[in-house]
Amino acid sequence: MEFELSKEQIGIQNAVRDFVKGEFKKEVVLELEQKHEYPVAIWKKAAELGFIGIHFPVAYEGQGLGVMENILVAEELCRGDSSVGACLILADFASEILLHFGSEDQKAAWLPKVALGEVLSCGAFTEPDHGSDITSVGTTAVKEGDQWVINGSKIFITNGGPLAGFYNVLCQTDPEAAPSHRGMSLILVEADRPGVSATNVGDKMGIRMMHTAEVNFKDVRVPLANLIGKENRGFYQVLEFFDESRILIAAQALGTARGAFDRALAYVKAREQFGKKIAQFQINQHKLADMATKIETAQLLTYKAAWNFDQGRIDPKLTSMAKMFAARTAVEVCDEAIQLLGGYGYMLEYEVERFARDAKITELYEGTKEIQKNTIASALLGKMK
């Protein structure tokens, strides 16, 4: 069993770290945070350097690498900054659906644009009335001649809005299917189609730079060729996508935890109270030990899940474990980082309070921690009468 990264993977890590040092300027990041603005210039530069869609084939402007390399990039970007990092690692969100299930025309049309930083991609699954339950959707797609006519609403759509290029929309295409999820399909809807509208969901606790929208589809017409994969297999395609995306969110959480830990460690080594560095107090040493141990454990789970996926094995139990544990680690480590900084930890300027706000989303999107526990338990118990 090999626990070391390859020279190529270490090179990727170092390249991302250099990028973070050069581009993640603290004053710029704080201004973006306060204005709730997407880091467009940094996104464009990341795409130029090949960090967006690194796992896409070379034919689609990627680097032909795997999930492991993609999550190494994600970890380092979020370690550098939890908000900017989250925007960059999710710039290609749900593009894997096209990568794995899309037609050659669909992939050729959109994946290069995503990799080159021309558009953001979106997965439109969650609905206002259904939340985590994607076994039931109200959005419908009806065939009329050579077109699909789509009606419905989606909520909390990452990247939805002005920079979106397209939406992978989960629709009910067979209303007679029982259970209903057997009649769902994924359909590609270009963001500029007549009848598509996106509205910002409003102020959020964290990831404030990222566009999060409610997207409405009103008599939206797209060609039948916009069907992604097989008709009435959309639900299963989304589940397979989640097995990959959960690893990415685990990496986001891992990087966020590392970033908060880095800042807390530097602070306690420099800060003096009662005549000595606060790192010399045993209680603070124990906090650091606990934080570091949680991060190491989360890393092992996340890396194993990525490696496993790259071997062609889909293991929902493992990917759910990685996301659940890494997300919990991020929340706990960030909270402890604030505690170590004391009053300064509560201030925007010292960053760890923002890392803590950004960490919480990793326990919510791509399936809440409760949904992850359901998946893990289901794998352990199997089908029960």
The secondary structure category is: alpha+beta
What is the CATH H-level superfamily of the largest domain?
Butyryl-CoA Dehydrogenase, subunit A, domain 3
User: What is the radius of gyration computed over CA atoms, rounded to a whole number of angstroms?
Assistant: 21 Å
Assign the CATH topology of the largest domain.
Butyryl-CoA Dehydrogenase, subunit A, domain 3
CATH C-level name of the largest domain: Mainly Alpha
Describe this structure in words.
- It is a single chain.
- By secondary structure, this protein is an alpha+beta fold.
- It has 3 domains: 109 residues, Butyryl-Coa Dehydrogenase, subunit A, domain 1; 112 residues, Butyryl-CoA Dehydrogenase, subunit A, domain 2, CATH 2.40.110; 146 residues, Up-down Bundle (Butyryl-CoA Dehydrogenase, subunit A, domain 3).
- It contains 12 helices and 10 strands.
- The strands form 3 sheets. A 4-stranded mixed sheet has the order 1-4-5-8. Strands 2-3-7-6 form a 4-stranded antiparallel sheet, with no helix packed on it.
- Strand 2 and strand 3 form a beta hairpin.
- The protein is globular and about 80 Å long.
- The relative contact order is 0.11.
- The model has no long low-confidence stretch (mean pLDDT 96).
